[in-house]
C-alpha cells in the first residue's frame, strides 16, 4: 500500500515522533508505514486521516498492480 504520509507530515511540519504521539502509535510504526513495510489498521488510518483532516483514501491507496 502506498501513502502520502511523509508528504503530509512535511506539510504540517511534524516529525515522525510527533505524528506517532498524535496517532497513539510508535515512531517505528510511522516509519514502517512510510517505507511501505506495514499496512496500518483501519483504526490507525482513521486517526491519521483525522490528524491531517483528509479522507483516508487521500492518504492511503493501492496501485492497480497491488489489487
Question: Could you explain the architecture of this structure?
Answer:
It is a single chain. The chain is mainly α. It has helices spanning 5-12, 16-23, 27-34, 42-52, 56-59; strands at 2-3, 60-61. The protein is globular. The model has no long low-confidence stretch (mean pLDDT 96).
Please tally the helical runs, counting DSSP H or I stretches of 4 or more residues.
Answer: 5
Main sheet record: 2 strands, antiparallel
Share of helix, binned? 55-70%
Radius of gyration: 11 Å
Distance between the termini: 10 Å
Overall 3D shape: globular
Q: Helix/strand-derived class?
A: mainly alpha
Could you tell me the number of beta strands? 2
Q: Which segments are poorly predicted (pLDDT under 50) over 5 or more consecutive residues? A: none
Order of helices and strands: EHHHHHE
User: What is the overall pLDDT average?
Assistant: 96
Sheet with most strands: strand arrangement: 1-2
> How large is the share of residues in beta strands?
5-15%
Features:
6% strand; 67 residues; globular; mainly alpha; two-stranded antiparallel ribbon; 5 helices; 58% helix; single chain
How would you summarize what this structure contains?
The protein has 67 residues and is mainly alpha-helical.
SSE map:
Blueprint: E1 2-3, H1 5-12, H2 16-23, H3 27-34, H4 42-52, H5 56-59, E2 60-61
Antiparallel strand pairs: 1-2
